[in-house]
Design goal:
By secondary structure, the chain is an all-alpha fold. 84% of the residues lie in helices and 0% in strands. It is elongated, with a radius of gyration of 21 Å.
Length: 107
């Protein structure tokens, strides 16, 4: 069915998009601007996709728009990358507080 093909198109495009956006995030050192770029690209491509569907554009154009929208929507993977960056930068946060508590009880 067309719905199944659209869904598959989106999943395939998203698989490639996640890799490309992740590589871009790594390339630019985890810049928040990459996340912003993904949100902007996703918003613009969603509007293009919406207009294509509403205006009853040719089905091939709708598939292309769906693929572009899914490719550009990498917010989740980019948030994961930013989260891992923060976790790595703050690995020992809380460890010192926990050690101090043990010293207080011993002393």
């Amino acid at each position: 069915s067309v719905i199944g093909l659209l869904t598959s198109t989106g999943m395939i495009a998203k698989s490639f998009g996640y890799v490309c956006w992740g590589l871009t995030m790594d390339r630019f050192g985890g810049s928040r601007y990459v996340l912003v770029a993904s949100v902007v690209a996703s918003t613009i491509s969603m509007e293009i996709y919406r207009r294509a569907v509403v205006n009853h554009t040719h089905i091939l154009a709708i598939f292309v728009c769906k693929g572009l929208r899914s490719f550009s929507n990498a917010v989740y993977v980019l948030l994961d990358a930013l989260t891992m960056r923060v976790v790595r930068a703050n690995r020992d946060v809380g460890d010192d507080d926990h050690d101090d508590d043990h010293h207080d009880h011993d002393g």
